[in-house]
Amino acid sequence: MVYSNRISLRRLCRLSFLVSRHNRHYSNLSYNPREQEWRSVVGLEIHAQIQSESKLFSGASTKYAGSTNTQVSIFDAAIPGTLPVLNRHIVEAGIRTAAALGCKLSQMSKFDRKHYFYADLPAGYQITQQRHPLARNGKVKYLVYNTDNWNKYSWKTASIIQLQLEQDSGKSLHDADQNRSLIDLNRAGVGLMEIVTAPDFTDGEEASSFVRELVLMLRRLETCSGRMEEGALRVDANISVHRPGEPLGVRTEVKNLNSVKSVGRAIDYEIKRQIGELESGREIVNETRSFDAQSGQTIAMRDKEKLQDYRFMPEPNLLPVFLYDSKSVPMGVDPANVIITDHLLQGLPSSPSKSYERIHDDHKISIRNCVILVNEDGLLKIFDEIVERRDAKALINFLIADFLGVAHARDINLLQCPVPFRHIAEVFDMKTNRYISNDNVTQVLELMFDFPNKTPGEIVKEKELENIQDLEVLQAECEKTLLKHPNVVQRWKVGQQKEKKGRQDPMLKLVNTTMTALNNRANPLVLISIFEKLLSKK
Amino acid sequence: MIAVTRITAKSSTRNLRQKLQLNNYFSSKVPDEPTWVPIDKEKLPKVPELDEATVNHLERLSLVKFNNQAGVERLYKAIEYANQLHMVDTEGVEPLDSVLENRSVYLREDKVTDGNCLKDILQNASLVVEDYFVAPPGNIPLKPVDKKSSK
Amino acid sequence: MTYKPYHELRRSLNEGTITCREVVEHYLNVIQQTAHLNIYLSVFTKRAIEKADLLDMKRHKGAPLGKLFGMCISIKDNIAIKEERLTCGSKMLENYTSLFNATVVERLEREDALILGKVNMDEFAMGSSNETSAFGATKNFINEDYVPGGSSGGSAVAVSSGTCMVALGTDTGGSVRQPASFCNVIGLKPTYGRVSRYGLVAFASSFDQIGVLSHSASDAALVSEVISGYDERDSTSSQSVVPSYSIHLDDLNVEIRCLIEAKLEALQSRGATLVPISLPHISYSLATYYILTTAEASSNLARYDGVRYGYRDKEASDLMSMYVQSRNKGFGKEVKRRIMLGTYVLSSGYYDAYFKKAQQVRRLIRDDFMKVFEKVDVVVSPTSPSFPFKFGEKASNPIDMYLADTFTVGVNLAGIPAVSIPAGLGTNGLPVGIQFMGKAYDEQTILNMCHFFETHFIA
Predict the structure, then answer these.
(1) How far is C363 from chain A (nearest CA, A)?
(2) Which of B90, C12, C181, C284 is deepest in the core (most CB within 10 A)?
(3) What is the pLDDT of residues A335-365, one digit of tens each?
(4) What is the ipTM of this complex?
(5) Which residue range(s) make up the domain with C353?
(6) Is the pLDDT of residue A11 over 60?
(7) What's residue B38's pLDDT?
(8) Is the dihedral of CA A224, A226, A230, A234 positive or negative?
(9) Is it true that the peptide bond before A181 is cis, omega within 30 degrees of 0?
């Protein structure tokens, strides 16, 4: 985003006609009468890697992109004679996440083994929590929105069936040339939260909106990085279609969707595909499919000819996890063996949807801006701190349009903002009060970051960037411009007889020229009025 | 006090005692005849036959093979033997996962204490390529073998 | 050198009348002489002599000596010793070397014990006769035509033939007690959770325990004391305080005649059936045991696929074929049988009728024991329903083989401790063992019983 020194259209709009920034006309999505015949049902299983130093059952590191097989303990490689030991931090992360998702925590949860053979599963089974998961029955309110049409937004609620802890598998790289698989177990045993939703979604838009909300929530909790591109969060979708009034159709599972966009595209494609199959008289096979991002299609995975029998069995090497609060914890129990949840459930961050609601209701901010504000790490905090007694709408626009651009260009992490928030507020005030011109805002922001120990006011004074208030000085400069550009003046004169439209061009030129000469140290509106006065005399 | 749970042969107890010249007046409180009620096989549910489909399914799940029909029959007998549990009334009984079920699990600190032992990890593998384990490619279904042809 | 209980040997060591090196050399010699019994899979000649020299030097310097100073111990080959072979009696792990030490090994070495080698066993601890080992059966020292029992057959014969003072074995359904009974030695299985399983190759994780075989109750008690105790690396290990068993071996006030009778009746134990008196569900213990342990075994053995270690079929062209071929060739028949049964009882459609049912019956059996122990201190039974049998005798019908565990499995189902002690020889010259079962964590009482039995009945 480059801010030119020229007057922007927006500024001129402010001068003359104020057009609402919100498009109020509805552009409905193409309404397909055929698809009215079908209902689609989608449920999600999300696997989120829990942020921790070490793995779920071993002390090996969980760092991303470590050197092959160097973050593997003997337990992770399923070496004979090794045993699992549970990581407290991971359980606590699961507890906080479950609570934030509105779930009920299980007082006792247990571990199970899920058996299947694959090269990236060293023990031949995954340790998970199938029968007695950590938490159940949550609810998540989320915002469904469309970036092409910001007026089409709605609030939905999805139910969480359960949240369970389990091991991640290793990675299997397929070497097609040599017809073999290469196995790296660095990821084997990393702690995962599996979040299973009820089949509460109808399409890709809803599902991807939910995933967006979930990712934000996990990042706020700091229990998962949410970096889908790194594989820290993966989504499996269960999709089926049926005609209204009939029972649910056969479902397929689309696995390993690794971006919010893929979630939406894959689900929408699969729904269309299933409808197409059924309308052609064919049947839907209960199978697992993968999503090919390039073609936008789902593809059947070869080795799932029969339903997998996972032969769940209780994990005999681990005892149950008991949760207590400070009132219910039994006497004489070793603190190393129990989790007391009080401090974990305090101070949980609010959900993104709550933030949207709050800002939308309290400050009457558009949904689009709410979304930007909330989705940008650290930006909401800045807003909340400096919005008091300031115009919220104007502040948001400033933050989004002016401030973010500069921060992004400098790769600044707003969660660790290098300047005090009051400096940012000061720049906003200077802009609002026209102490500096809009054209200089970017420069001032850059300088603000360059000199975090100086207040913006000091910087502006030092660098002589404040607007010149002395009308005589301004007038003198305007007259200079007029003298330099007689043809523009001429054009202006000609334009006056014609319609208004012709007038703005030469005025633009005159104002821009003067602003440049003044180092943008003037309010263009003031310049315009000076020019109008001068020109009317001629 | 000691409880004695014992087994005795049906008839030769007294004979042996006499042979060894032991005191016959001592009573160990163990009945001379077994009190165990034999299980009526008719009352047990029938074990479904292990047909080819089931055999193939088991082989695919366990990734070991029966090798011959005798092996299948052995399994059948073992299942029949296991069937006797049907005679036990377990209404309302909670399954026992572990004799230590009332204890809570130990939770360790989240510190990196393991790993970084690449050489050890790869030491016993018979095939290694550039620090990776090697396996043939997956995703190809197993072909079921006709069991009736082998004996 | 005839057998001595450890405390006598220790006295000689302390006094300097004998050195550790001499002790080790003696045992290594016996190991050589008994090679035809096929006891040892690995002998640590170099390692043991080096350690013996170190220990002798330690004593010479006057440094404090460990509780097991100079005690020569052999270890069953499913317990891990770093940089030594760990075969579990199976072709699958024929060339496998352990990467770490089991906790019990660490504890033994910390107390200055000497480890002589790894001994033979039934493959992956599945068997009751030591006939399923991929490396040939071990012969019973008392009569070489007969099985030594299993799965810790090697451990039992190692002690019985005088190749070591004490051996470690593992007991999932009687695998320490039954061979102890067949070989005329003492075999102790501690309470489940007493001894850390870290470093024990799992067979049935909710049953497995490492046990001790020895000639004397005091030796069993001493070694047991050393290897027991809480270990963070095993989440099922108990924090119950381990008493110093060896110090408190006392006489017990006991019905002498009852014991004699019991001892004699053990001789009459051929071909009979179990009578549940105070344990109403005990007759179902075998079926329960086999369902649960084969299920756990099928799970614990799923990791043996040839990719990271173990036998690998190099010809296979795709993943599943490689797995099947490696496992088919690497595992013996008994192991495969048990994996099959275990898979069956866990499979969908059968889980409730078999596995879940067995778990419920297990609870009933355990409750039976707990009720009985409200009234009594020790429960007595023969260790084995039969005398040792000949090689090949039980091979044709595995159910018969399983019946050898009749009296011992109840103990593992309930997780309580039990010990088998020689109760004399039959008229056929074959040994019989008598088993004492105790309350959970009450090894003390049963060891006391052993000691009493030993002093009064064994010559």
Answers:
(1) 15
(2) C181
(3) 888 899 999 999 999 999 999 999 988 888 8
(4) 0.89
(5) 282-375
(6) no
(7) 63
(8) positive
(9) no
Spatial neighbors of C302 by CB under 8 A, at least 6 apart, are A115, A117, A123, A124, A125, B63
Residues of C in contact with A84 (CB under 8 A): 235
Question: What residues pair up with A164 in beta bridges, in sequence order?
Answer: A194
Which chain A residues are within 8 Å of C305, Cβ to Cβ? 117, 124
How many cross-chain Cβ pairs, B to C, lie less than 8 Å apart?
A: 262
* C341, C424: one domain: no
- Do residues C306 and C447 both lie within one domain? no
Q: Do A91 and B140 touch (CB under 8 A)?
A: no
**Active-site residue, from C74, C128, C151, C298:** C151
Q: How many CB pairs under 8 A join A and C?
A: 98
By mean pLDDT, which of A163-177, A465-479, C234-248, C438-452 is the weakest?
C234-248
How far does A227 lie from chain B, in Å, by closest CA?
22
pLDDT (tens digit per residue) in C126-152: 999 999 999 999 999 999 999 999 999
Q: Do C367 and C342 share a structural domain?
A: yes
Q: Please tell me whether residues C382 and C289 are part of one structural domain.
A: no
CB half-sphere exposure, A257, CA atoms < 13 A: 31
Q: Look up the pTM and report it.
A: 0.86
Contact call for residues A260 and A206 (beta carbons, < 8 A): no
User: Within this chain, do residues C334 and C415 fall inside the same structural domain, yes or no?
Assistant: no
Co-location of C211 and C326 in the same domain: no
What residues have CB less than 8 Å from C422, skipping those under 6 apart? Answer: C181, C184, C185, C186, C431, C432, C433, C434, C458
Does C289 share its domain with C265? no
Paired strand residues for C378? B2, C438
DSSP 8-state secondary structure symbol assigned to residue A201: B
Rounded to an integer, the average pLDDT of A33-42 is 77
- How far apart (Å, rounded) are the C-alpha atoms in residues C417 and C411? 7
Q: What is the CATH number of the domain that holds C194?
A: 3.90.1300.10
The answer to whether residues A85 and A94 touch, using CB atoms and an 8 Å cutoff, is: no
Is C236 within 8 Å of A124 when comparing Cβ atoms? no
**Active-site residue, from C51, C67, C76, C91:** C76
Q: Does residue C405 lie in a domain region?
A: no
Contact C73, C115 (CB under 8 A): yes
pLDDT of A220 > 50? The answer is: yes
Return the closest-CA partner of residue C416 out of C391, C390, C449, C443: C443
Distance CA A211, CA A205 (A): 10
**Number of domains making up chain C:** 2
Which of C100, C305, C323 lies closest to A74 in CB terms?
C100
> C274 lies in a domain?
no
**What pLDDT score was predicted for residue A536?**
81
